[in-house]
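Team,

Forwarding the record for the chain on the shared tracking sheet. I've put the sequence and predicted structure together so nobody has to dig through attachments.
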Amino acid sequence: MEKRLLTLLELGLLIYMLRGKPNVERILALLPAAEVEEMDDGGMGSLRFVSNKQNRRLGKIVAELWYKDVDEVPVLASLYLDTEGDLYELDSWKADSTPLKRIPNF
């Protein structure tokens, strides 16, 4: 998979998801420079955050949000940390399992 920075729409989504959550200042500060890889999810928009750590494992969910794609199909976005509290994954699931058309502006 190819590494890249978050798009502006992805960044806006994550900032919106984290607003008002306790103890997320460190995570918010890392987002602009965070590298991600797109996951093989049928185009629904899931991302894995790149890390140099070995043997990373899925930890806890830090934020979750339902929104609608431009075709009005609901999308569930869930942001996970790894077991050490670092960004791990943005899991996106579109209710009809079709590819995500566009993240809305947040």
